[in-house]
Amino acid sequence: MKATKICVIGLGYVGLPLARLFSTKYETVGFDMNQKRVEALMAGHDATLEVSDDLLQNAINNHGFKCTANIEDIKDCNFYIVAVPTPVDENNNPDLSPLYGASTTVGKVISKGDVVVYESTVYPGVTEDECLPVVEKVSGLKFNVDFYAGYSPERINPGDKLHTVEHIKKVTSGSTPEMGEYINKIYSSVITAGTHLAPTMKVAEAAKVIENSQRDINIAFVNELSKIFTKMGIDTQDVLAAASTKWNFLPFKPGLVGGHCIGVDPYYLAQCAQRHGYNPEIILAGRRMNDGMGEYVANEVVKLMLKKGIQVLNSNILILGFTFKENCPDVRNTKVIDIYKALKEYNVNIIVYDPWANPAIVKQEYGIDVINKLPTEKTDSIILAVSHEKFNGLDVKSLVKDKHVIYDVKGFLNRNIIDGRL
To answer: What single DSSP character describes residue 411?
Structure first.
């Protein structure tokens, strides 16, 4: 049997860390259609900051890791891994176009006896019913006769330097029992946390999509509690702290639910359920609750301003943080934009400060301006939207006028200086 040569297709938050890890044991090539991204990586820097410059440069210089946008460079690989995004469209329907594109790429290079493993989050059946027929059509090869497949859902947590890819247990699966064992062996050779071999690809797909759906529903529950307790004049964080003293209480926190996983995956599961004639009430109710939190925060801030006699029209509001989560530059599906849009309806002036976000990317994706340095002019209100570590020790009160509102979405600030929080 030929030596395993791995190609990871898609060098984003998921693909790059995985490719770098595999390069420590196998000849590995990373493929991405973004030439600028490839050039930056080969120069030794990852703009997503998921892989440190030292690790990346070590992989290139000492392990022969190579990134390319040239399809000719991946034709001699025999173990292809697809790690492209799976977003939703403006109607929250799954957008499989990146997967179709990646499957077409695989079809152009895959040879007899090769393996393709999908890591992109999907609903059960997508790998076999949507992706592999594309590979078959483009390659002219027959699935499970000429080539084989597997599914191993990604579990990357952007910005988390503790739970990196090798330290997160990996679910694996294969299109045949023998292929499952082989794929599991390849992954377990680099994943120090271990692996779990699922009996089928559909089981592995389902496991992934319910992981994030479960978190989404739990967060929706505490978001609803926050709304209730706010009306009752009770601090939600105090209630959660008290309830958390019970050993089996799940300590979820209220907040904005964005990003490319928790805010997206439940829609994949919901559409799958609807295709099978079932209306998923709890899943969609959770989505509605969480998708409305940005507007809720904006309205709460306006109410607090009015109660303090602060004129809302043409007031200046500073939003601290724009990325979808703390301590990473990822702005995909950030729900801070919902706060921004809801506030704009009140004709206020908004400044968004985020030391992590790339202003050019934010401008391109959302059409708004983000600054990387704190403004010098005092504002009427501040909304702490993302709990970046860089905000630790920030003298928030020095940024506002004497009459002001400070609202804490994340329960991050000293409670003695805030006017409201989730």
So the answer is: S
Q: Which amino acid is at 293?
A: M
Query: What phi and psi values does residue 417 have, to the nearest 5 degrees?
Result: -105, -5
pTM: 0.91
Residue 121 has pLDDT above 80, yes or no: yes
Q: How far apart are CA 264 and CA 254, in angstroms?
A: 18
Return the structure tokens found at 296: 């809720």
d(CA 179, CA 7): 18
DSSP H or E stretch at residue 7: strand 5-9
State the residue for tokens 């991050």.
Answer: 412
What stretches of 259-354 adopt beta strand conformation (E)?
316-320, 349-353
Cα atoms found within 13 Å of the Cα of residue 82, Cβ hemisphere only: 28
Residue 1 has pLDDT above 70, yes or no: no
Distances (CA, A) of 182 to 8, 13, 114, 186: 17, 25, 12, 6
Gyration radius of the chain's alpha carbons: 23
Q: How far apart are alpha carbons 373 and 370 in whole angstroms? A: 9
pLDDT in tens, 365-387: 999 999 999 998 999 999 999 99
* CA 311 vs CA 59, 341, 346, 382: distances in Å: 56, 19, 11, 15
> What letter does residue 85 receive in the DSSP assignment?
-
CB 376 within 8 A of CB 400: no
**CA nearest to 28, candidates 16, 45, 40:** 16
Amino acid residing at 34: N
| Sign of the dihedral defined by the CA atoms of residues 183, 184, 185, 188, in that order | positive
- Can you give the three-state secondary structure of 345-403, one letter per residue? CCCCEEEEECCCCCHHHHHHHHCCCCECCCCCCCEEEEEECCCCHHHCCCCHHHHEEEE
**272 is known as an active-site residue:** no
Tokens of 408: 């804490």
Encoded tokens for 40: 């930056």
Pairing of strands 66-68, 316-320: unpaired
The one catalytic residue in 67, 77, 131, 261 is 261
Amino acid identity of residue 173, one-letter, is: S
pLDDT tens sequence across 146-173: 999 999 999 888 777 778 899 999 999 9
In SS3 terms, 213-229 reads as: HHHHHHHHHHHHHHHHH
Please give the Cα distance from 156 to 161 (Å, whole number): 10
